[in-house]
């Protein structure tokens, strides 16, 4: 049996603006997807019970197509990613078991972590040498193919390399200290494709308004790197609040997200809070004041969010 794990992620700054060339900053968090591979003569099985979703598993045909789908869309999606890796590596006669602590369809990089961990576990099991760089680029190609063209390299790069990554012209790993954040998830599913299309449409209608907003977001992303480096947390929190306002301005905020953002900021518990990822649903992040993590979690939970503490800058893919 071979097992590998890979982390989920949050985008700290720069979502949407990055689609038009501004820098974005993301980080790996201490929630992981785990994939184990064992020999199974005569069949190939994908078991996604460990995702905590309603469906128990799938079989796939010799071309790597998922042939028995069921009721849970997320479970089907997870199996599709694993199946694409099986096909890419030409694997057969294996049982692949997936489990994960990363909430699915929330913008926390669950699918990228599953693809990266599957590539690492399966290639290792088959005796194929894949270094982290080739895992990152292959995972990005696979995620893009399964998502029909969508998918920035951010999620797969963070799942592979861990740490912090800035995306602008290319993918740049940054050496920055860890932070303690709180993630708050709305129960509203997250549709990156629809949100990106809506923002790009707004930009083509009002370029003279949206371009400066993107430019300001880019300035925030760059400045945030220095704040994290020097642990200037008050300023980092202010930058999160400004970035959230700019994301509201381009229409990707929702009432549910803002309720969690304001709950976290309430009574000065969080130094800053913003939505993370594409918006329209999904999650927000808060930077709690020192010693206020559990109060921030309680405040977000009372606003009907699912809240948990995360550490940033965590390690990338690991064969276990
Ligand atoms: O939905 P997420 O967390 O994968 O983030 C999408 C980020 C966008 O900037 C909106 C899109 C992109 O491809 O960078």
What is the radius of gyration computed over CA atoms, rounded to a whole number of angstroms?
Answer: 19 Å
Output mean pLDDT: 91
Total DSSP E strands? 12
> What share of residues is helical?
40-55%
Gross geometry? globular
Given the helix and strand composition, which structural class is it? alpha+beta
Q: Low-confidence runs (pLDDT<50, min 5 residues)?
A: 67-71
Ligands in the model, by name, code or SMILES, are: (3R)-3-hydroxy-3-methyl-5-(phosphonooxy)pentanoic acid
N-to-C terminal Cα separation, in Å? 10 Å
Order of helices and strands: EEEEHEHHHEEEHHHHEEHEE
| Strand portion | 15-25%
Number of helices: 9
Mind summarizing the main beta sheet? 8 strands, mixed
Short description:
This protein is α+β, with helices and mostly antiparallel strands. It has 9 helices and 12 strands.
Structural commentary:
There is one protein chain. The chain is of the alpha+beta class and 320 residues long. Helix content is 42%, strand content 24%. The chain has nine helices and twelve strands. The chain has helices spanning 73-89, 110-126, 132-146, 153-161, 192-205, 207-229, 233-249, 255-265, 293-302, and strands at residues 2-13, 24-39, 45-50, 58-59, 94-100, 164-167, 171-174, 180-185, 270-276, 283-288, 306-311, 318-319. The strands form two sheets. Strands 1, 2, 3, 4, 5, 6, 7 and 12 form an eight-stranded mixed beta sheet that branches. A four-stranded antiparallel beta sheet has the order 9-10-8-11. Strand 3 and strand 4 (58-59) form a beta hairpin. The longest helix has 23 residues, at 207-229. The chain starts with a strand and ends with a strand. Residues 67-71 have low confidence and may be disordered. The chain binds (3R)-3-hydroxy-3-methyl-5-(phosphonooxy)pentanoic acid. The site of (3R)-3-hydroxy-3-methyl-5-(phosphonooxy)pentanoic acid has 13 residues, from helix 5.
